[in-house]
Every structure is written in structure tokens, then in C-alpha cells.
Amino acid sequence: MDTASTRDDHGAGEHETGNQQDGRGWRVSRRTVLGAMSVAGAGMLGTPAWAEETRDAAALPAEHLPSAREMDAQAMRSFSRIRGVEVYYGTQTSPLRTWSCTSGFYGRLGDWMDTLSAWSGQAGHGPVKSIGSAGFYVNKAGQHGAGTAMDLSIVRWSGGRNSNMFNGDHASGNRTRRRRYFAVEATLRRHFRYCLDGNYNAAHANHFHVDVGGLPNRRLLHGSRADTVFVQAVANNFLGAGIAVDGVWGSRTQQEVTKLKNRLDVSGDLQRNQAAVGKLLRGIAVHGFRDQAI
Q1: Residue 228 φ then ψ, to 5°
Q2: Handedness of CA 161, 162, 167, 173 (dihedral sign)
Q3: Rounded CA gap, 50 and 54, in Å?
Q4: Which residues pair with 155 in a beta bridge?
Q5: What element of type H or E holds 196?
Q6: Within 13 A of 4's CA, how many CA atoms are on the CB side?
Q7: In the predicted model, is pLDDT for residue 50 greater than 60?
Q8: Is the pLDDT assigned to residue 79 strictly greater than 70?
Q9: 290 sits in which H/E element
Q10: 3-state class of 58 per DSSP?
């Protein structure tokens, strides 16, 4: 098991530490000010899920944390829409919230929204109407505190479809909903290095957590629990593999991943070849949005 298996985006984990950065006066004061901006009004919506979760996960290597230079290089910005798509709190549809993240992360969110719209549009979903989130910048340690993370609760399309993380679509009794959930996850993995889903642990049963972390995008690592449970769940839902979703990349998991690659005409090492991973993710997403086996 690697550091990925102990990661929790709510306080500490795979590449976020608990209070390791609190000694930097510039960051503490910055969070205090920005916290007032991004969390203002949250009281009327109830206590966010992230505020309830434990912060006792194991600390992670410092190289997985944004440096002071990286933080200074990216100014924070406020937003209520991503590429015109409205962003609400949780599964609500009003009021429209104002969120904060770094300018660079907001640009990445826009690229993700373009991919989500394009890939789901190919399946006839129509334009993305709105999304729900439990947080972007949050006054805490780690990637949320750096303004470089998103918690995603729901995606709604204008045609009436939705993918509801908050209701636990990863474990839904409806295969169509499960496939759509993993299609959304594939779009997220196209643009964000870390993606924690409902199979990763119980804390993420009601949302995706994504951030940029410290490693290149679009890699599927054998030693990462987050990456492994994703490919295992995809194998089960698109190939009927019937393997355990246990986060261990063993020989059976490799057999199913090889089958996925062959059926989607993907070649290359998924631990190193980002183009191969990108092609695999696109194939998973398009099949998922179309509710098709691979």
C-alpha cells in the first residue's frame, strides 16, 4: 500500500498534511480573509459535509504540498459559474453561491467543463445545466486551503439527466447510473491528478474530491488505491468482470485492464504514457454516458 491508500482530502492524507504549513504567517492570515469570502452565507445552508469529517489522516510528503512560491504566483478569484454553468452548494439549486479558488485552478475547471460537455454531449445528454459542490477554497490545510481543489456533489444536464454523487451513484442498484458516475469520474481524471471517489473510502461516498497535487495528470498507478479502485469498478460495470474493488492491483485486475485497453484500442503503459491514459478515459466516458458495455 502506498501513500495514496491513506489519503483524505479533508485535513490530511495522500498529499496533504494537517498543520504542517500553519507556521507560515502569510498563509494563515490569507486563509482567514479568504475564508470569510468563500464560506460567507454557508450558515444558512447548514454545516458543510467537509466541516464534519475527521482530520486525523496520516501526514504526507512535503513535496505534495503547494509551495509558498506556487501560492504567491496564483491570485485567488471568485466565481459562481464555470464556462457559464451555475455552481450551487451540495445538491441545491438555489441560491447561487460565490466560490473561490486560484486563477490557475479555475482555468483547469473550465477545461474540465469543456471535456464534460463534449463527451457527455456525444451521448445526447444536452448541455451541462449546473453542478453542485461542497467546497473549492476552504479555510483548512492542504489543497482546499491552497485553493486548488474541488468537491463535486452532482452534475445536471439540461436534458433532465443527472449524476448524483451525494446519493451514492457509485453503488446505485441502477447500472445506468453507475456507468454515468464513472463516466463523470473519467472526465475529472482527464484534468486533475488526484480523484477520490465513493469506492476510495466512506468519507467520499457522497462526493468526488479532485485536486492537482504534485504529480502529472492522467496516470493510473498500480500503487495508488484511488487509481486502482477506479479501474476495478470500471471493469465490473463495463466488462462484467466481477472482481473485488479492494484497491489492490493484482494479476486479475491487470487482466481486466488489459482487456479494457484492447477493446478501446489503447496501447502504452498507463503508469507513464499520458496519451494512452487520456484515450482510455475518453473511451470509458463515452461508453458510460451512452450506457454501453465496453
Answers
A1: -70, -45
A2: positive
A3: 9
A4: 131, 163
A5: strand 194-196
A6: 24
A7: no
A8: yes
A9: helix 274-290
A10: coil
CB-based contacts of 248, cutoff 8 Å, min separation 6: 228
pLDDT tens sequence across 132-141 = 999 999 998 8
Residue 77 belongs to what H/E stretch? strand 76-79
HSE (CB half, 13 Å, CA atoms) of 54?
Answer: 11
Mean pLDDT is lowest, of 43-52, 249-258, 269-278, for 43-52
Q: Return the exposure string of 55-87: e unless at least 16 CB atoms fall within 10 Å of the residue's CB, then b.
A: eebebbeeebbbeeeebeebebbeeeebeebbb
The amino acid that residue 143 corresponds to is Q
State CA 92 to chain mean position distance: 19
Sequence-separated (6 or more) residues with CB below 8 Å from residue 203: 8, 10, 53, 54
pTM of the model: 0.79
Q: Kindly state the helix (H) or strand (E) to which residue 195 belongs, with its residue range.
A: strand 194-196
Placement of cell 459559474 in the chain: 81
Under 8 Å between Cβ of 281 and 275: no
151 - beta bridge partners? 135, 209
For residue 170, count other CB atoms closer than 10 A to its CB.
25
pLDDT tens digit sequence for 184-193: 999 999 999 9
Positive or negative CA dihedral for 184, 120, 268, 292? positive
